Amino acid sequence: MSSNAGVRVSNASALRNAYRLIKFLVTRGAMAAGAVVLLLLMHWGIWSLIPPIPTHALAKKGRFVSVQGIDAYYETYGSGAPLILIPAGGSHTSTWRNNIGPLSQKYQVWTVDLPGSGFSEKPPTFAYTHKAYAAFVKDFMETMGIQRAVVAGQSLGGTVALEFSLDYPEKTAGLILIAAGGYPQADKPASLSLNRYALPSAIVMSFSSYPFVVKSFLNELYYDPAPFQNDPELIGEICDINRTPNSRAAWYWMPQALNWSFSLPDPGRIRSVAAPTLLVWGNNDKVVSTDVAHRFSRDIKNASLTIIDKAGHMVHEEQPEAVNRAMIVFLSSLQW
């Protein structure tokens, strides 16, 4: 045999061996991937059979009221001119735990969980759009006999407050936006991208009642997440809320209806905000950057901006004293 023939045989043998190796790896890889998918589906299936926790069993402080036929959870404190605090989507009234005390010394503070969030009902029939949420807040006010109020909100709650001020200016004595959305963002929060499709969303959310999963999610929300990750009461509450009826499905319905964005459908309307406005932002917000705060400041004529250091998206939780000071100064300046 010539040397060239020997080289060809050697090359052919090497190619066959490489093919066998690739086939082996692909087969094993496919088997491993299939096993992972099967385990995920089994996990989702098991959790779908576990009975949810009734919200009334979790509520210890506030009350429930029917608004638009929805069982809505709310809390109220103090007396005076009404101030409505709207938590973020998926959040609960306890997010204001360090703000309610100082604010309720001079004002009547109301906080209500949005449909699909917290202890409020999470019906599949609710629209989950900005306008639907704003109409819910209006109907909540009318149900509770509140004619006009300062409306404050954080994150999606802030966007809802913004929509409310545009749709019902006669009911808006003032507007407080805390890390709120309103404009399209090039980089949307990673947490929203997990909920693009119903089945993957359901599978992902089947892990939402595990403390280690909740703790990892908090890295996105706080400048220093450690104190919150090490708060067993907070982590336990979030895990429990994620086991209430339709809680996991609501995490799909909500971003789907909002087009996976904090943006209003027509951001140009923001220039029409007539109410005196306070903007409060954490300087280290990873979800809604301070660029959005500055844009709000330019577009809303009667707006003041406070940016707080060493705070992320949940600025009112991380730096409550600074946020409370800014809110009290703003509220004191209003004629209402």
Question: Percent of residues in helical segments?
Answer: 40-55%
Overall, the morphology is globular
Number of helices: 14
Mean pLDDT across all residues, rounded? Answer: 89
Secondary-structure element series: HHEEEHEHEHEHHHHHHEHEHH
- Weakly predicted, low-confidence segments: none
Structural class determined from secondary elements: alpha/beta
Across the major sheet, the strand order is 1-2-4-3-5-6-7-8
Distance between the termini: 102 Å
DSSP E strands, number: 8
Q: How much is the radius of gyration in Å?
A: 25 Å
Biggest sheet architecture: 8 strands, mixed
Strand proportion, as a percent range, falls in 5-15%
Features:
336 residues; eight-stranded mixed sheet; alpha/beta; single chain
Task: Explain what the structure shows.
The chain is an alpha/beta fold and 336 residues long. It contains 14 helices and 8 strands. It has helices at residues 3-49, 55-58, 100-103, 130-143, 156-167, 190-193, 198-205, 211-218, 226-229, 232-241, 247-257, 290-299, 315-318, 320-332, and strands at 63-67, 70-77, 82-86, 108-112, 149-154, 172-178, 277-282, 303-308. Helix 12 links the parallel strand 7 and strand 8. It is globular, with a radius of gyration of 25 Å. The model has no long low-confidence stretch (mean pLDDT 89).
